UniProtKB/TrEMBL annotation:
Superkingdom of source: Bacteria
PROSITE patterns xrefs: AAA (PS00674)
Protein name: ATP-binding protein
Source organism: Novosphingobium mangrovi
Pfam family, one: AAA
Keywords (A to Z) from UniProt: ATP-binding, Nucleotide-binding
AAA+ ATPase domain mapped to chain residues: 116-248
GO molecular function: ATP binding
CDD domains: RecA-like_protease (cd19481)
Amino acid sequence: MDVDRSLVLKLFEAALGADYTTVRRIGGRIARDLAEVDAEGAKALQAMLRKRGVPLQASGYVEALPRDAGSRLPLVEEMAWPTSPLFLNTDAGHVIEQFIEDANNIALLAENGISARLGILLYGPPGTGKSLLAGHIAARLGRPFYVTRLDSVISSRLGETSKNIRGMFDFIPTKDAVLFLDEMDAIAKLRDDRHELGELKRVVNTVLQGLDSLADEVIVIGATNHPHLLDPAIWRRFPYKAELLVPDSAVRASMWSYFLFQDSDEDGASDLLARLSEGMTGADIENFAHAARRRAVISREDLNLAPILLAVATNKEGAPRLPDNRALTVDEKKMLSQILLDRLAMPQTEIARTLGVSRQMIHRYLKGCDDG
Ligand SMILES: Nc1ncnc2c1ncn2[C@@H]1O[C@H](COP(=O)(O)OP(=O)(O)O)[C@@H](O)[C@H]1O
Ligand SMILES: [Mg+2]
């Protein structure tokens, strides 16, 4: 690969000027060029670029960072691009791919008279990956990722909230940014009686004005757990909408594989877990998997599938039963055998293999359950 001198100069200039957005962009170009001669090297560079986000402080924005007058907390921050993978159901995946394609072609669309503000609203239950997805979109677009949590912008002081929101929208320092408004339902919570009636309306208006004041190139992502609480005018400001539902079975299998087995599982264990974990979110699965791995590491033993299966199958929302890594008692083995039979219609030989006991034993367990 020939070294492009002007690129190298630009790279150093950007690095010394703490302009990390440009550093990343040049890095991306180098990685693309490099890919033709050194695929490994290009991959490593890309991984590095994905990993290293830069907080606004490091970019020298610290003085300008708008803060809440009371708490002194920053109202908007530049966050690192996420490093962990995202698993999406097919429907949401399609919407996101289309959105990214459109965002990558803003200029072309504008040339053809279709200049629309590119905003996408992500909604769905907590723990389904909305915040993670927002970061992934920024990474895919190679744009700096500015995050503001509406719940932290809402001030208890009268009148301060609108000022905060204005400060936040005024701040967006570069036009090629992704602005992520997380936890948007916080606005609707102003409806409670601690706040005077007019305040909700004022805050909603300030958000609308803020959204309208942004440069066309800024890409806005909103997230909310309660879309029905969102003011309809705000809802309309986001032409794209993606609902993040709890993961389907195939997605759950990928999640188990990644979070529990670091993608090196065998014998369809992830599929088995997926079939027993309907209703769990990505955050739940991550939590479970990490709990199981912690136990295994601390007890210095291999991951033990049976107790994880039992914990997942008997998990109750709100009262999670995290797995431990010890051998199951006889009663627990009976319970798990019955669950695998009832819920998955699993043949006895397979139950035996899963539990690591003989078929005859399973036969006795299941008979015992019938008797009892
Ligand atoms: N769809 C998903 N794919 C991969 N990881 C996920 C997914 N959903 C949740 N997680 C895991 O759970 C964590 C919390 O999810 P988060 O993005 O905060 O959910 P939300 O914003 O919808 O409440 C993520 O950081 C990630 O580790
Ligand atoms: Mg979130």
